[in-house]
Each structure stands twice: as structure tokens, then as C-alpha cells.
Amino acid sequence: MTAMAIQAGASLLAVLFVAWLVGKMGLGADPRIEDAAHAIRLAEEAEVGFGGIEVGRDRAGFAAIVRNAEGRMMLVRAHGNFFAARPVDAQVIGRLDKDFLTLTMPERTFGAVTLQLGRDAGMWASRMREIVRG
Fold it and tell me: Where are the alpha helices (DSSP H) in the chain?
């Protein structure tokens, strides 16, 4: 009986330790892009000197498209517990569907990203048309 109690106590301590470790590592987090400043900061981390000036942030905060003063754009999205960013260039396929803009990147592992931008979706889609097709 005592051995079972010791084993149960040790198991409980091990579970609590693993839960603490997972929390410390940030695993299981639900990363969101908090606001425009956060999106600009993430784009700047991806490309130093990018200098974002305008943001189209997905309503849920999972992704954002950031534009700089030169008109270049960067797509930032949640990727696991972190964020990933890719430039939006002539190889990116954009599809507008009412309030949603879906961007399909040429890099298959990055996947397609659908942003719910509300009435601004059309504006961002039209900016994509301005990208010179190479």
C-alpha cells in the first residue's frame, strides 16, 4: 500500500514537472498578431530595414500583410508557436472573396494563408495587382 502511494506521488510530481516545463518552453501557446505595431515588428525581424508603414491584419490575428513606403509587401503568419514571414512578390497568387484575401505562396511548405480583412480586402488585392509580374 505504501509503495503504491509513493508511486502515485512520484507520478504526480513528474506530471507537474512536465506541465511546468511545457509552460516555460511556450509549447501549446496560441500566438496572435496583437496589433499593427506587432505586425510591423515581425516584418522587421524577418527583413531588417523593411520599414512597414501599413498593415492589413487578419481579424483573428493569425496573419497580417505589411506594406512599406516602397510598396513592397510582406506576409506574416503564425507558424506553430512562432511567426514566419515571406515577401509578397509576383510569384504569390492572390484570390479575393468578399472580405477574405487568400495568398498562396510559391513555397508549398508555407501554404496558403487566408486573411479576413473586412472591407479592406479589396484594397490589398488591388495592391497585389500593382506588383510587377516578372
Answer: 2-25, 36-46, 121-129
